[in-house]
Design a protein that fits this description.
Blueprint lengths: L1 E4 L5 H4 L1 H10 L1 E6 L2 E9 L7 E6 L17 E6 L14 H15 L4 E8 L7 H15 L5 E6 L7 H4 L9 H17 L3 E4 L12 E2 L5 H8 L1 E3 L17 E2 L19 H10 L16 E4 L6 E5 L3
Parallel strand pairs: 1-4, 1-11, 3-12, 4-5, 5-6, 6-7, 7-8, 8-9
Antiparallel strand pairs: 2-3, 10-13
């Protein structure tokens, strides 16, 4: 079993103490987003957890807690963009985030930290020239601290329309995507990054850009020394290359305040949910109550029996 922590919220930035409590108690509970009174109890014993994939824009609170994860394989999807607080409202200054990136890489190694430059959005301030310049600037700073960079273009989900309206964000044309991709690829190559895209249907192979698996069984196999018997995640979009996992986060719970975020529907709901967080609860947000139905999810390791050496 692969654990995602989390596509739905920034657990390393805001809920790292809760995560460690779940590790200590060897289980977490997750509400079904489609039926909030249906709760799954997830076994987090190292014997069944093949890998934990952390997603974060600021995993600084995790830096002094990594020793508690020694029984687990894990890696980080670390989003580091070039936006100001008009787009990513509550992130620390970029210099501080770059410093965190480097410190994390020094602790766990560049193979286990993926730089994400995503999503790319355009308006009168964040132009193509701006992105090319800033991507180059970040690539130079992060050279040697990661082996791969993943990028994507903004998707105009219906649920984010209201949030982005005041920012003048525009649709990106195919020609603009190609220009950006060509430049990103050149910059990545110059700084020794492998480059791919997240959930994009556009073919950029002529720029040596592939399609990413953010939940990546091949990377996990290199980390743990075993191949995994896993299939594509059927709950993700067709363009997504990720393999199956269990996400232990919750929607509407990330205080980062990014205007492009598909996982937050309302800033007011996020604030109210954050206030309900109890780091001692098995649930990320709130506590179990009498109307909840809890079922223990059947999980198992997906390691293949024959050990592989890399």
């Amino acid at each position: 079993m692969i654990i995602s922590a989390s596509r739905r919220t920034d657990i390393p930035a805001y809920y790292s103490d809760w995560m460690l409590n779940r590790i200590k108690e060897r289980y977490a509970c997750v509400r079904n987003p489609m039926n909030i009174h249906q709760i799954s109890k997830i076994n987090l014993n190292p014997d069944v957890v093949d890998c934990i994939v952390f997603w974060s824009k600021n995993p600084k609170p995790m830096l002094d807690k990594l020793q508690f994860l020694n029984d687990y394989a894990y890696y980080f999807q670390f989003t580091l963009n070039s936006y100001n607080n008009d787009i990513e409202k509550k992130l620390p200054p970029q210099k501080e985030i770059v410093d965190t990136f480097k410190k994390l890489s020094n602790k766990i190694g560049p193979q286990r930290i993926i730089w994400r430059y995503d999503p790319v959005l355009l308006n009168t301030q964040y132009t193509m020239a701006y992105h090319i310049d800033k991507f180059n600037e970040l690539a130079c700073q992060l050279r040697g601290y990661a082996e791969k960079v993943t990028f994507s273009f903004i998707d105009f989900y219906k649920k984010i329309t209201e949030n982005i309206k005041s920012n003048g964000i525009i649709q990106i044309t195919s020609e603009e995507k190609n220009i950006l991709a060509e430049n990103f690829s050149k910059i990545a190559s110059e700084n020794n990054f492998f480059i791919d895209t997240c959930a994009e249907d556009i073919d950029l192979s002529r720029f040596n850009i592939g399609h990413a698996r953010c939940i990546d069984d091949k990377l996990i196999a290199k980390i743990i020394g075993y191949n995994l018997a896993v299939e594509k995640d059927k709950n993700q979009r067709l363009e997504c290359g990720c393999v199956g996992c269990i996400d232990i986060g919750e929607y509407n719970s990330c205080p980062n305040g990014c205007v492009y975020c598909y996982a937050n529907y309302s800033h007011n709901i996020v604030e109210n949910n954050y206030k309900k967080h109890n780091l001692l609860s098995p649930l990320l947000i709130g506590d179990k109550n009498s109307t909840d139905v809890i079922n223990e999810r059947k999980v198992m390791s997906n390691k293949k029996l024959q050990k592989e050496f890399f």
